[in-house]
Amino acid sequence: MQEANLIAADRVVLTLHGADLSGATLSWATLTAEQVAGAKSLKGATMPNDQKYEDWLKSSRENGENSGP
């Protein structure tokens, strides 16, 4: 599923356990912290808030929120 485009996806991916979403566009996708944590890789992915995964992860950790793969 590398470089998948999940723009406007609403629970399209019920489980991301082991999914490689490197470079995927997840804009407007509805994702839970558990789904994100189950992904194999999100390197370079664009998260629902349009941040790159690496920036999203850093800001989430700084705010004491989600932890990811």
Please explain how this structure is put together.
The protein has helices at 33-38, 53-62. The protein is mostly helical and 69 residues long. The chain has one domain.
Strand content: under 5%
Low-confidence parts, pLDDT < 50 over ≥5 residues? none
Helical residues, percent:
10-25%
Shape: globular
Quick structural gist:
With 69 residues, this protein is mainly α. The chain is built from two helices and no strands.
List the helices and strands and how they pair.
Elements: H1 33-38, H2 53-62
Write out key terms for the chains shown:
single chain, 69 residues, mainly alpha, 2 helices, 0% strand, globular
